[in-house]
Task: inverse folding
């Protein structure tokens, strides 16, 4: 048994290398000019594939992208994000129903017309693998950032990655040896996010609205310390700007084209 955990059971504060790693996690978008070899990526992915999967369906695939032309094209789809172009390795984590379709066809059925549950489960499967891969990579000294903007144009991303029907890219990940590491953003107050026994029951009777105001101020101070333009109500302002008007209004139709009905 890990000695730190043993001490925690006696009355100390629980900790571990993984907890400490998560505690200092930041998104890294700048990478050293140092290759990430194939064996290391394979080791990371093999570990990640032990992530939980609903009913053992394993409804995910990962595209490992190193080709510069492909990264350039993905960069355009993702809003011209520079780090998508410059990352040594781009990992595309995909929801993949093709193997389930083969299995069902062998029993005279089909996955065609799949419902919301199928789309959700396969997307969650891909997300669990992606986060597991991120943690495995961090444990080896690598760093990176998740890229949800591949869904800006899910059909175009599928074309670039050569995805067949019943596969879509849920998100990507830039991965490499860290270059410039930014300061860590503050997170919301723990007790504002954790509810005890039922929703709204916060420790110490914390007022969620007040906690949100305090967080917006803390995030604003963080941005100002890094020289980034912001507002006094930083987080609430940013969320309103991000979700009004709503993001990716055509996504449902795009995913339907790719074989995910989400109905």
Result:
């Amino acid at each position: 048994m890990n000695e730190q955990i043993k001490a925690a059971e006696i009355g100390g504060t629980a900790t571990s290398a993984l907890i400490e790693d998560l505690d200092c996690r930041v998104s890294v978008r700048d990478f050293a000019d140092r290759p990430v070899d194939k064996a290391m990526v394979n080791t990371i992915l093999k570990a990640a594939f032990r992530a939980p999967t609903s009913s053992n369906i394993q409804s995910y695939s990962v595209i490992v992208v190193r080709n510069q032309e492909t990264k350039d094209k993905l960069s355009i789809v993702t809003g011209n994000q520079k780090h998508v172009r410059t990352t040594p390795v781009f990992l595309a984590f995909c929801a993949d129903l093709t193997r389930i379709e083969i299995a069902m066809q062998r029993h005279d059925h089909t996955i065609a017309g799949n419902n919301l549950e199928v789309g959700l489960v396969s997307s969650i499967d891909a997300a669990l693998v992606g986060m597991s891969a991120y943690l495995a990579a961090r444990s080896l000294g690598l760093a990176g950032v998740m890229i949800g903007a591949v869904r800006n144009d899910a059909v175009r991303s599928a074309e670039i990655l050569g995805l067949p029907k019943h596969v879509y890219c849920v998100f990507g990940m830039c991965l490499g040896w860290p270059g410039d590491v930014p300061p860590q953003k503050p997170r919301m107050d723990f007790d504002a996010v954790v509810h005890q026994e039922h929703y709204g029951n916060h420790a110490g009777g914390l007022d969620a609205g007040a906690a949100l105001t305090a967080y917006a101020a803390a995030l604003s101070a963080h941005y100002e310390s890094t020289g980034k333009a912001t507002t006094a109500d930083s987080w609430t302002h940013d969320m309103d700007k991000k979700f009004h008007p709503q993001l990716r209004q055509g996504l449902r139709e795009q995913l339907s084209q790719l074989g995910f009905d989400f109905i």
About this structure: Residues 32 and 179 are 5 Å apart (CA to CA).
